[in-house]
Amino acid sequence: MTVAETPLAPFGPDIWVKRVPLRFFTFPMGARMTVIRLPGDALFVHSPVKLTPETRSAVESLGTVRFLIAPNRLHHLFVGDWAAAFPEAEQWGVRDLMKKRADLRWTGVLGDASEPGWAGAIDQAILSSWFQDEAVFCHRASKTLIVVDFLESAWPEDGWHYRLFARAAGTWKRATTTYDQRLTFRRRVKLRGTVRRILGWDFERIVLAHGRLVETDGNAEFRKGVAWLRP
Protein backbone atom coordinates (compact mmCIF):
# COMPACT_ATOMS: atom_id res chain seq x y z
CA MET A 1 0.00 0.00 0.00
CA THR A 2 1.23 3.50 -0.83
CA VAL A 3 -0.04 6.92 0.14
CA ALA A 4 -2.66 8.14 -2.32
CA GLU A 5 -2.12 11.48 -4.04
CA THR A 6 -4.68 14.11 -3.13
CA PRO A 7 -5.63 17.29 -4.98
CA LEU A 8 -4.58 20.67 -3.63
CA ALA A 9 -7.44 21.23 -1.19
CA PRO A 10 -8.47 24.01 1.22
CA PHE A 11 -7.59 23.50 4.87
CA GLY A 12 -8.87 26.84 6.18
CA PRO A 13 -8.90 30.49 5.17
CA ASP A 14 -6.14 31.13 2.59
CA ILE A 15 -4.38 27.79 3.16
CA TRP A 16 -4.28 24.66 1.01
CA VAL A 17 -2.58 21.26 1.35
CA LYS A 18 -1.63 18.46 -1.01
CA ARG A 19 -0.33 14.98 -0.16
CA VAL A 20 1.71 12.84 -2.55
CA PRO A 21 3.35 9.39 -2.43
CA LEU A 22 6.99 9.51 -1.37
CA ARG A 23 9.40 6.88 -0.10
CA PHE A 24 12.09 7.61 2.47
CA PHE A 25 14.56 4.77 2.10
CA THR A 26 12.04 1.89 1.89
CA PHE A 27 9.26 3.54 3.88
CA PRO A 28 6.22 4.82 1.92
CA MET A 29 5.71 7.80 4.22
CA GLY A 30 4.15 10.21 1.75
CA ALA A 31 4.79 13.95 1.93
CA ARG A 32 2.60 17.01 2.17
CA MET A 33 2.93 20.50 0.70
CA THR A 34 1.25 23.57 2.18
CA VAL A 35 0.36 26.69 0.22
CA ILE A 36 -0.58 29.91 2.03
CA ARG A 37 -1.97 32.98 0.31
CA LEU A 38 -0.61 36.16 1.85
CA PRO A 39 -2.15 39.62 1.48
CA GLY A 40 -1.81 40.79 -2.12
CA ASP A 41 -2.14 37.23 -3.54
CA ALA A 42 1.52 36.33 -2.85
CA LEU A 43 1.90 32.58 -2.27
CA PHE A 44 4.06 30.98 0.41
CA VAL A 45 4.83 27.42 -0.79
CA HIS A 46 6.06 25.24 2.06
CA SER A 47 7.87 21.95 1.37
CA PRO A 48 7.11 21.86 -2.38
CA VAL A 49 6.21 18.50 -3.88
CA LYS A 50 6.85 17.31 -7.43
CA LEU A 51 5.80 20.03 -9.86
CA THR A 52 3.40 18.36 -12.28
CA PRO A 53 1.34 20.38 -14.78
CA GLU A 54 -1.77 19.74 -12.67
CA THR A 55 -0.09 20.92 -9.48
CA ARG A 56 1.31 24.00 -11.18
CA SER A 57 -2.08 24.93 -12.60
CA ALA A 58 -3.78 24.47 -9.23
CA VAL A 59 -1.22 26.64 -7.45
CA GLU A 60 -1.20 29.37 -10.09
CA SER A 61 -4.98 29.64 -9.81
CA LEU A 62 -4.52 30.83 -6.22
CA GLY A 63 -2.05 33.68 -6.74
CA THR A 64 1.60 34.38 -7.52
CA VAL A 65 4.32 32.10 -6.16
CA ARG A 66 6.52 34.44 -4.13
CA PHE A 67 8.24 32.30 -1.47
CA LEU A 68 9.59 28.73 -1.71
CA ILE A 69 10.29 27.23 1.71
CA ALA A 70 12.60 24.29 2.53
CA PRO A 71 11.88 23.82 6.26
CA ASN A 72 14.65 21.32 7.01
CA ARG A 73 17.56 19.52 5.36
CA LEU A 74 15.35 16.67 4.14
CA HIS A 75 12.44 18.61 2.60
CA HIS A 76 14.18 20.18 -0.37
CA LEU A 77 13.96 17.70 -3.26
CA PHE A 78 11.74 19.75 -5.57
CA VAL A 79 12.72 23.31 -4.66
CA GLY A 80 15.01 23.54 -7.69
CA ASP A 81 12.21 22.59 -10.11
CA TRP A 82 9.90 25.17 -8.57
CA ALA A 83 12.63 27.82 -8.66
CA ALA A 84 13.14 27.17 -12.37
CA ALA A 85 9.41 27.42 -13.01
CA PHE A 86 9.01 30.55 -10.87
CA PRO A 87 12.31 32.46 -11.22
CA GLU A 88 10.94 35.55 -9.43
CA ALA A 89 10.19 33.56 -6.27
CA GLU A 90 12.46 33.85 -3.24
CA GLN A 91 14.04 30.65 -1.90
CA TRP A 92 14.38 30.24 1.87
CA GLY A 93 15.92 27.30 3.73
CA VAL A 94 17.39 26.36 7.08
CA ARG A 95 21.08 26.96 7.70
CA ASP A 96 22.22 23.32 7.58
CA LEU A 97 20.68 22.92 4.13
CA MET A 98 22.78 25.65 2.53
CA LYS A 99 25.92 23.54 2.05
CA LYS A 100 23.96 20.44 1.07
CA ARG A 101 22.16 22.33 -1.71
CA ALA A 102 24.78 24.85 -2.76
CA ASP A 103 23.43 24.45 -6.30
CA LEU A 104 20.34 26.48 -5.41
CA ARG A 105 20.12 30.27 -5.38
CA TRP A 106 19.07 30.86 -1.79
CA THR A 107 17.55 34.20 -0.86
CA GLY A 108 18.26 33.76 2.82
CA VAL A 109 18.38 31.55 5.90
CA LEU A 110 15.26 30.87 7.94
CA GLY A 111 15.74 32.10 11.49
CA ASP A 112 13.85 32.23 14.75
CA ALA A 113 11.66 35.16 13.67
CA SER A 114 9.41 35.70 10.66
CA GLU A 115 10.91 37.29 7.58
CA PRO A 116 9.48 40.65 6.44
CA GLY A 117 7.74 39.05 3.47
CA TRP A 118 5.36 37.12 5.73
CA ALA A 119 5.71 38.79 9.14
CA GLY A 120 2.32 39.52 10.64
CA ALA A 121 0.69 36.67 8.74
CA ILE A 122 2.90 33.71 9.71
CA ASP A 123 4.77 33.09 12.97
CA GLN A 124 8.07 31.21 12.83
CA ALA A 125 10.48 29.34 15.10
CA ILE A 126 13.52 27.08 14.70
CA LEU A 127 13.84 23.72 16.45
CA SER A 128 17.52 22.73 16.48
CA SER A 129 19.18 19.37 17.00
CA TRP A 130 22.63 18.01 16.19
CA PHE A 131 21.10 16.32 13.13
CA GLN A 132 19.13 19.18 11.62
CA ASP A 133 17.22 22.41 12.12
CA GLU A 134 13.50 22.53 11.43
CA ALA A 135 11.53 25.70 10.78
CA VAL A 136 8.03 25.56 12.26
CA PHE A 137 5.34 27.97 11.08
CA CYS A 138 1.92 29.11 12.28
CA HIS A 139 -0.51 30.72 9.85
CA ARG A 140 -2.52 33.15 11.91
CA ALA A 141 -5.60 33.55 9.70
CA SER A 142 -6.35 29.81 9.58
CA LYS A 143 -4.90 29.06 13.03
CA THR A 144 -2.72 26.33 11.51
CA LEU A 145 0.63 25.02 12.76
CA ILE A 146 2.88 23.52 10.06
CA VAL A 147 5.58 20.95 10.90
CA VAL A 148 7.49 18.43 8.82
CA ASP A 149 9.55 15.90 10.82
CA PHE A 150 9.34 17.13 14.41
CA LEU A 151 5.92 15.48 14.68
CA GLU A 152 4.93 12.43 12.64
CA SER A 153 2.16 9.85 12.74
CA ALA A 154 1.14 6.69 10.91
CA TRP A 155 -2.33 5.17 10.47
CA PRO A 156 -3.99 2.07 9.00
CA GLU A 157 -4.08 3.61 5.51
CA ASP A 158 -0.28 3.83 5.43
CA GLY A 159 1.95 1.11 3.99
CA TRP A 160 2.82 -1.84 6.23
CA HIS A 161 6.50 -0.92 6.27
CA TYR A 162 5.74 2.50 7.67
CA ARG A 163 3.14 1.14 10.09
CA LEU A 164 5.75 -1.24 11.46
CA PHE A 165 8.31 1.55 11.76
CA ALA A 166 5.78 3.79 13.51
CA ARG A 167 4.99 1.17 16.14
CA ALA A 168 8.69 0.94 16.96
CA ALA A 169 9.22 4.72 16.75
CA GLY A 170 6.28 5.70 18.95
CA THR A 171 4.23 7.44 16.26
CA TRP A 172 1.53 4.84 15.65
CA LYS A 173 -1.85 6.63 15.71
CA ARG A 174 -0.42 9.68 17.45
CA ALA A 175 1.44 12.79 16.34
CA THR A 176 4.71 12.92 18.25
CA THR A 177 8.50 12.98 17.84
CA THR A 178 10.04 9.64 16.92
CA TYR A 179 12.20 8.02 19.61
CA ASP A 180 15.34 8.31 17.50
CA GLN A 181 14.76 12.02 16.81
CA ARG A 182 14.36 12.72 20.51
CA LEU A 183 17.94 11.58 21.05
CA THR A 184 19.22 14.25 18.64
CA PHE A 185 17.93 17.13 20.78
CA ARG A 186 20.72 17.76 23.28
CA ARG A 187 20.06 21.40 24.13
CA ARG A 188 16.86 20.63 25.99
CA VAL A 189 16.58 23.94 27.87
CA LYS A 190 16.57 25.89 24.61
CA LEU A 191 14.23 23.39 22.98
CA ARG A 192 11.75 23.65 25.85
CA GLY A 193 11.77 27.42 25.53
CA THR A 194 11.02 27.22 21.81
CA VAL A 195 8.28 24.66 22.36
CA ARG A 196 6.68 26.86 25.03
CA ARG A 197 6.72 29.76 22.57
CA ILE A 198 4.99 27.59 19.96
CA LEU A 199 2.39 26.52 22.51
CA GLY A 200 1.69 30.21 23.05
CA TRP A 201 0.63 30.64 19.42
CA ASP A 202 -3.07 30.55 18.57
CA PHE A 203 -3.60 27.41 16.48
CA GLU A 204 -6.37 24.83 16.21
CA ARG A 205 -5.07 22.74 13.30
CA ILE A 206 -1.77 21.06 12.47
CA VAL A 207 -0.36 20.16 9.07
CA LEU A 208 2.06 17.23 9.30
CA ALA A 209 4.25 16.28 6.36
CA HIS A 210 3.95 12.62 7.38
CA GLY A 211 0.65 11.50 8.85
CA ARG A 212 -2.94 12.63 9.17
CA LEU A 213 -3.90 16.26 9.38
CA VAL A 214 -4.97 17.44 12.83
CA GLU A 215 -8.21 19.32 12.21
CA THR A 216 -9.34 20.14 15.75
CA ASP A 217 -7.76 20.75 19.18
CA GLY A 218 -4.38 21.30 17.54
CA ASN A 219 -2.79 23.04 20.50
CA ALA A 220 -3.79 20.20 22.83
CA GLU A 221 -2.56 17.61 20.33
CA PHE A 222 0.77 19.39 20.01
CA ARG A 223 1.08 19.51 23.81
CA LYS A 224 0.51 15.75 23.96
CA GLY A 225 3.02 15.21 21.19
CA VAL A 226 5.77 17.04 23.09
CA ALA A 227 4.91 15.63 26.52
CA TRP A 228 8.18 13.65 26.38
CA LEU A 229 10.00 16.97 26.65
CA ARG A 230 8.07 18.12 29.74
CA PRO A 231 7.76 21.72 28.54
Task: Please give a handful of descriptors for the protein shown.
Metallo-beta-lactamase, Chain A; 4-stranded mixed β-sheet; 231 residues; alpha/beta
Sheet-strand content, in percent, reads 25-35%
SSE string: EEEEEEHEHEHEEEEHHHEH
Q: What is the domain tally? A: 1
Query: Could you say what the CATH architecture is?
Result: 4-Layer Sandwich
Rg over CA atoms, rounded to whole Å, is 16 Å
Runs with pLDDT <50, length 5+? none
| CATH class category | Alpha Beta
Morphology = globular
What is the typical, i.e. mean, pLDDT? 91
- Number of DSSP strands? 13
CATH fold descriptor: Metallo-beta-lactamase, Chain A
Oligomer: single chain
Instruction: Give the N-to-C terminal Cα separation.
Output: 37 Å
The secondary structure category is alpha/beta
Residues in helix, %:
10-25%
Q: How many H/I helical runs? A: 7
Biggest sheet character = 7 strands, mixed
CATH homologous superfamily annotation: Ribonuclease Z/Hydroxyacylglutathione hydrolase-like
Tell me the strand order in the biggest sheet.
1-2-5-6-7-8-9
Fold and architecture overview:
The protein is α/β, with parallel strands linked by helices. The chain has one domain: Ribonuclease Z/Hydroxyacylglutathione hydrolase-like (Metallo-beta-lactamase, Chain A, 4-Layer Sandwich), CATH 3.60.15. It contains seven helices and 13 strands. The strands form three sheets. Strands 1-2-5-6-7-8-9 form a seven-stranded mixed beta sheet. Strands 10-11-12-13 form a four-stranded mixed beta sheet, with helices on one face. A hairpin with a 4-residue loop joins strand 10 and strand 11.
